[in-house]
Amino acid sequence: MATEREQLQKMLAELDYYQTQLQVLQQQSQLIDASISDILIADQTLTEIGKLPEGTEILVPIGGSSFIQAKITNTKTVIVGLGADTSTKKTIEDAQKTLQERLSEAQKFKENVQRGLVEISQRIEVLRPQVEELVAKIREASGKPGEAKGSV
Question: Could you tell me which of 111, 129, 109 has the C-alpha nearest to residue 119?
Answer without folding.
Answer: 111
